[in-house]
Amino acid sequence: MKKESEHLLLTPDQMGTADRLTIQKGVPEFELMQNAGQVVADYILTYFAPCAVGVLCGPGNNGGDGFVVARLLRDAGWSVKLTFQGAREKLGDAARKHLDLWGTDDSPVNDVLADSELLVEALFGAGLDRDVTGTFAELIKRMNRTHKPIVAIDMPSGIDGATGEVRGRAVRALASVSFFRLKPGHFLLPGKSYCGNVHLGQIGILESVLPRIDAQLWYNGPDLWTMPPYEAGGHKYSRGHCLVLSGDELSGGAARLCAMAALRSGAGLVSLFGERGALVAQAPHVTEIMLKPEPLDELLKDERNNCLVLGPGAGANAKLRDRVLAAIAAKRACVLDADALTAFAGDPKALFDHIKRYGGDKIVLTPHDGEFARLFAGLDLAAGKVEKVRQAAHMSGAQVLLKGADTVIGAPDGRVVINANAPAILATAGSGDVLAGIIGGMLARGMSGFDAACAGAFIHGAAAQQFGKEGLIASDIMAELPDMLMAMSE
């Protein structure tokens, strides 16, 4: 996986460290605050027509950024009113100086809310470390009830920048303007739905401070991974053979979707395997997919069969457990989904020990929330989504992809990626089976487990976006895959 720093996400604490290290290297805090306000003002000047603006500032540096925005918009000829909710003596030096430069008395909240066409929210930003209550909670409630466009500085106040959780009450912004690096809360639900359009600007924080912070969280995108190229002298087996376990005669659709997605994702060959009766039921529905009634131990003797997808529609039984353990022991790349996870809910240690013993760098677990809770019952499930996936990957020794509108992917070494391009129309039967197949296809082609999971999640979401209308069904995602793969390979 490529560690492209542009995709790096910083928690509020890490962002505070970046600020502090930059100031220690000689960049004045006053200058950073001035630059932050300039980025926000430039955004407003670019995307809004001149209008009456109300700027609502809190008692910290987020409020200091707001003082700068108010002054710059006023200097640009806009009508601006500012209200400061806090004590001047509690402001830091840089924020106090910028309040002095504003110069005029602040306006009553009632006037700011009533007389403004656009609100700039600078109460707390991402640095919030407690629930919003009392006067500030009431102010946020009143701001939201105006139904006026709100531009939030850094992060809508009330959203935890590290977890995306709502802390008491939160501002619903039309846009959020952040600095240096985005925060996890810009991508994690429910925070993502409060942020509106997210814009990132640079304010003079030094790139050289990033190695000191050692962040291990990114938002997903093609810059993080590389699609395996098609070699001019290659052949079907050089692109891998993916085996997908079929469900029984009445439960074969999930595996069929999965197999077709793996083939569309570029695996050289894809076969459904399983009980003969199940494959006979599959036969009228597949052409390019092969059918393998051979026992799994025979299939695993052929080294060219380099990847397996186990679980979709398979039935959570002892036989499935044995197949999963056999595939891992054979050191094959595996996607374990659905029933393959549920089958180990009573004894996850048996699965995790096997993964760690035989090497889990190409083992991908793809649970939804319920499967995750059953498989990782020993974790603190109240922790933020990023941290619980990071812990799960470490506990299992596998790559863990926790599915959702804000899918989170973790590796055992602590790396985590948030995938946030999935449209709501993806919530349809079979969508997860297609995702498992895409990841299987990437593994068959030789990608690492973590890269395959990240690429699969992104391509899956991008294909649904490309379809772009209501009525999406799982097979529609597959129809979009060739165009998506071509775009990712350019």
Automatic annotation (TrEMBL):
Q: Which residues bind AMP?
A: 403-407, 432
Q: Does the keyword Transferase apply?
A: no
What does the note under cofactor report? Answer: Binds 1 potassium ion per subunit.
Domain of life the protein comes from: Bacteria
The protein's Enzyme Commission number: 4.2.1.136, 5.1.99.6
PANTHER family assigned? ATP-DEPENDENT (S)-NAD(P)H-HYDRATE DEHYDRATASE, ATP-DEPENDENT (S)-NAD(P)H-HYDRATE DEHYDRATASE FAMILY MEMBER
What is annotated about its quaternary structure and interactions? Answer: Homotetramer.
- What is this protein's name? Bifunctional NAD(P)H-hydrate repair enzyme
Q: Which gene encodes it?
A: nnrD
